[in-house]
Design brief:
The strands form four sheets. A five-stranded antiparallel beta sheet has the order 4-5-10-6-7. A four-stranded antiparallel beta sheet has the order 11-12-13-14. It is of the alpha+beta class and 300 residues long. It is built from eleven helices and 14 strands. The structure holds flavin-adenine dinucleotide (FAD).
Length: 300
């Protein structure tokens, strides 16, 4: 049974920010107010008595937070944009290949139709699938409150397990990233216990750009293998400045695996996850470099 709470449904963003400011208890969202977007995380949490907010603020009526825009060399998506919106946008395979691939295998269609990108980031889960795909794009999170707006690089947004830099009086208004270079290569792969509606056991996103035969920027992001999604920065650095070869990819994948410290849990052991990081990173880098054909599979 759900506990009792007040339910607010603001008509627009200003109304929502005022309600959030009135109800904010710093660092205590779960006991002050909670935002409701698609409800795919928060409703199951209420049902299992995780958190007991006094006020639920439904963002469902705020259309100004639901958009996909391309302007001034950047792609921006509103916090209330759903995973289906991303999947169905015709330009997304070029604007964010790894995010588009992630959207294909995110939950099942019913959840994708309600689950929002803002909700996926806000929950701070290390298994949030959009986060590795956005980290490799150098995405930024735009937070708004009644005091104004600030942008935080996604790479600096998470501070620990389900901990973020967002204050209780702020909401995620937008996520944005630079349009990838035309010759950028990006891929995402999720390994789970089954193909549909599975919590990620290991998530990997890779992205790199080559110029004159050398890699001039590289990103590798790993999900579900630490307290938060993170970039494998030593592995990235091993790619940059070098010609991408099968040998280099083996070395880079080995670094990503060696530097990881995944834990055992109900879904997999830490040892298994470590091996999967190496295998999937190697496979994605080889496919992105054109050494192997892309298999079009986004999950195993
Ligand atoms: C069957 C099932 C399958 C799933 N499969 C996947 C999967 O494959 N991959 C995956 O990553 N996740 C999965 N999830 C988890 C969930 O669907 C996602 O995390 C989803 O993106 C959450 O978005 P939401 O809009 O439903 O968030 P909600 O449940 O509405 O909210 C989640 C949290 O985010 C906060 N929040 C929401 N919007 C904002 C905002 N704009 N600003 C600040 N805070 C905000 C809320 O207050 C709450 O704390 C699954 C869930 C279910 C039930």
């Amino acid at each position: 049974m759900l506990h009792e709470f007040e339910f607010e449904k603001p008509r627009d963003l200003q109304d929502a920010l005022a309600l959030i400011a009135n109800n904010a208890k710093e660092a205590a969202e779960d006991s002050g107010h909670v935002l409701l977007a698609g409800g795919s995380n928060i409703i199951p949490a209420f049902r299992t008595n995780q958190g007991s907010p006094e006020v639920v603020i439904d963002l469902g009526g705020i259309d100004e937070l639901r958009f996909i825009k391309v302007e001034n060399g950047r792609v921006s998506i509103g916090g209330r944009t759903t995973i289906s919106d991303i999947l169905n946008h015709p330009d997304m395979p070029a604007l964010a290949p790894a995010l588009h691939q992630c959207s294909k295998i995110f939950a099942g269609q019913m959840v994708r139709n309600v689950a929002t990108i803002g909700g996926n980031i806000a929950c701070g889960s290390p298994a949030s699938d959009s986060v590795p795909a956005l980290l490799v794009l150098d995405a930024e999170v735009v937070l708004v409150s009644q005091h104004g707006e600030r942008s935080v690089p996604l790479d600096e947004y998470f501070t620990g397990y389900k901990q973020t830099v967002r204050h209780a009086h702020e909401l995620i208004a937008e996520i944005s990233w630079p349009i990838p270079a035309a010759n950028a290569a990006s891929l995402f792969r999720k390994v789970g216990r089954r193909k549909g509606d599975a919590i990620t056991v290991v998530g990997v996103a890779v992205h790199f750009v080559q110029q004159n035969g050398l890699c001039n920027s590289a990103r590798i992001a790993l999900g579900a293998v630490g307290p938060m999604v993170y970039r494998a920065k030593r592995a990235e650095a091993a790619l940059v400045g070098n010609a991408i070869s099968a040998e280099l990819i083996d070395e880079v994948a080995g670094i990503a695996a060696a530097d990881s410290t995944p834990i055992d849990d109900v879904r997999a052991t830490g040892d298994y996850r470590k091996q999967v990081i190496g295998t999937v990173t190697r496979r994605l880098l080889r496919q992105a470099a054109g050494l192997d054909a892309e298999d079009g599979v986004c999950h195993d």
